[in-house]
């Protein structure tokens, strides 16, 4: 490494150590991460100056004897603690969130699109939300997550069928409208990134994430790195064949495709056809099941079993340490997660461990946390001074 590269790597090591173990003393950081005390001292000084860390003086010991330690933690305090905006752009609505450096959602809001997905309108709503919720705290920028084929390096939505977007420079559009740095990524990779950064430790070894919403996508990570593939096109599992499904796919003409079988769009259309809900909204269907409607419950359990069989295929191909499934009914109600687990284990040829199949660690806050992580992940990878985030030396 060059000197600058080594400094950036050391800064990232210190920041990740504090994320995992803070509040923590400088001497403990050195022991935990393997850097010399001098290197830790240099990096913590820079991270304190940039406002990413703060000192938390401990009270003196009883009787005033001894030298007090000064532990460090991420700067998440209400005064001066940096925050990130998270924006998830869905088909029916957008979700806004204000998120701190530990991935905790401090404030959130969901705004329906009513058929209007104009980025300028979305930016105006987010700007109003931030004016109310950020309260003068340092705002590092906006992380954006959405379905479809996304190229994060140039901020381009290559293809989003449900929104009708192709080759849209969304990051630039939103940045110009908001006056803030913006980074975008696919929502499946965003959730996987949040699991790696803030979730279960085993997710850093390997994980597969399956996102089941109006758009169905997947993501794969190993040793803490998300796989994008050439042109960032990895993760399109819309046409993954689901064993046992006979649903026709209007997009490709085949039967049994995952998105045509199990997406929110597919299941809510069926719920409306059966007279279970008045309009095609997944929240209405989940609420109907929770209120005791057996028809809604059966439909959600059928979907869970389809998702479980698709999960089994991904388990067999990748055999990850953690298999994360984001699907609304199972995020909110454990019985549907158990249906997914049972179907996956029954169909898998390699996995009998139901405990490996989990929902996102953030639960219902998954979308704003994941979107914010699109911006936070690069920060934790290189906190040494990104001009785009206003964190120069």
Give a verbal description of the structure.
The chain is of the alpha/beta class. It folds into 3 domains: 3-74, Winged helix-like DNA-binding domain superfamily/Winged helix DNA-binding domain (Arc Repressor Mutant, subunit A, Orthogonal Bundle), CATH 1.10.10.10; 83-191 and 367-389, Nucleotidyltransferase, domain 5 (2-Layer Sandwich), CATH 3.30.420.40; 200-360, Nucleotidyltransferase, domain 5. Helix content is 41%, strand content 20%. The chain has helices at 3-21, 26-33, 37-49, 119-133, 170-178, 187-198, 258-262, 264-273, 282-290, 294-318, 328-332, 334-347, 366-381, and strands at residues 53-55, 72-74, 83-89, 93-100, 105-112, 139-146, 149-151, 156-160, 165-168, 182-186, 206-212, 216-222, 225-226, 322-327, 357-358. It has a 5-stranded mixed beta sheet. It has a 5-stranded mixed beta sheet with strand order 13-12-11-14-15, sandwiched between helices. Strand 3 and strand 4 (93-100) form a beta hairpin.
List strands and helices in order, with pairings.
Blueprint: H1 3-21, H2 26-33, H3 37-49, E1 53-55, E2 72-74, E3 83-89, E4 93-100, E5 105-112, H4 119-133, E6 139-146, E7 149-151, E8 156-160, E9 165-168, H5 170-178, E10 182-186, H6 187-198, E11 206-212, E12 216-222, E13 225-226, H7 258-262, H8 264-273, H9 282-290, H10 294-318, E14 322-327, H11 328-332, H12 334-347, E15 357-358, H13 366-381
Helix pairs in contact: 1-2, 1-3, 2-3, 4-5, 6-13, 9-10, 10-12
Core attributes:
single chain, 13 helices, 41% helix, alpha/beta, 3 domains, Arc Repressor Mutant, subunit A, globular, Nucleotidyltransferase, domain 5, 393 residues, five-stranded mixed β-sheet
């Amino acid at each position: 490494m060059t000197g600058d590269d080594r400094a950036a790597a050391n800064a990232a090591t210190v920041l990740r150590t504090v994320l995992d173990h803070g509040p923590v003393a400088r001497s403990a950081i050195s022991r935990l991460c393997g850097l010399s005390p001098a290197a830790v001292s240099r990096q913590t000084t820079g991270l304190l100056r940039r406002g990413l860390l703060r000192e938390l003086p401990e009270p003196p010991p009883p009787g005033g004897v001894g030298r007090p330690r000064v532990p460090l933690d991420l700067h998440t305090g209400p005064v001066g603690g940096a925050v990130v905006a998270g924006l998830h752009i869905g088909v029916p609505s957008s979700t806004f969130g204000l998120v701190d450096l530990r991935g905790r959602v401090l404030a959130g809001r969901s705004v329906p699109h009513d058929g209007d997905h104009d980025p300028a309108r979305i930016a105006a709503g987010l700007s109003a939300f931030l004016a109310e919720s950020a309260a003068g705290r340092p705002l590092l920028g906006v992380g954006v997550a959405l379905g479809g084929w996304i190229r994060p390096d140039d901020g381009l939505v290559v293809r989003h069928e449900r929104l009708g977007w192709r080759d849209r420079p969304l990051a630039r559009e939103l940045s110009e409208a908001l006056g803030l740095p913006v980074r975008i990524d696919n929502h499946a990779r965003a959730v996987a990134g949040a699991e790696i950064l803030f979730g279960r430790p085993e997710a850093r070894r390997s994980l597969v994430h399956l996102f089941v919403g109006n758009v169905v996508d997947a993501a794969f990570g190993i040793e803490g790195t998300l796989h994008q593939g050439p042109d960032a096109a990895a993760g399109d599992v819309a046409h993954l064949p689901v064993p046992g499904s006979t649903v026709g796919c209007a997009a490709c003409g085949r039967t049994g495709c995952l998105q045509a079988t199990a997406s929110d769009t597919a299941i809510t259309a069926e719920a409306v056809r059966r007279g279970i809900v008045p309009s095609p909204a997944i929240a209405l269907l989940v609420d109907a099941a929770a209120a005791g409607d057996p028809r809604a419950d059966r439909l959600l359990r059928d979907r869970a079993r389809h998702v479980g069989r698709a999960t089994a295929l991904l388990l067999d191909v990748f055999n990850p340490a953690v298999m994360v499934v984001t699907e609304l009914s199972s995020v909110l109600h454990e019985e549907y997660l158990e249906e997914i687990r049972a179907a996956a284990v029954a169909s898998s040829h390699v996995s009998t461990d139901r405990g490996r199949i989990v929902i996102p660690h953030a639960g219902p806050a998954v979308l704003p946390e994941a979107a914010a992580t699109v911006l936070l992940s690069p920060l934790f990878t290189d906190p040494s001074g990104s001009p785009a985030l206003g964190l120069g030396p």
